Amino acid sequence: MNFGAEQINLDILKKRAFNLRWASVPEGVIPLTAADPDFPCASPIREAITKYVHDGYLSYGPPEGLREFREALAENYHVSKKVLIDPGYILPVDSAAFGIYLICKTFLQPGDEAIIFDPVDFLFRYSIETVNAVAIPFSIPPGTGKVEFNALEELITPRTKMICLCNPLNPTGKVFTKEELLQLGEIATKHDLIILSDEIWSDIIFNPFQFTSISSLESEIINRTITVTGFSKSYGLAGLRIGAVLAPNKQHYARLFNTSLHQSTIHGSNVLGQIAATAALRECGDWLKEFIIHLQKMRDLCVTELNSIKGFNCISPEGCYVAFANITETGLSSEDMQKLILEKAKVSVVPGLKKWFGEGAEGYVRISFASSEYILKEAFSRIKNTIY
Ligand SMILES: Cc1ncc(COP(=O)(O)O)c(C=O)c1O
Question: What is the pTM of this model?
Answer without folding.
Answer: 0.98
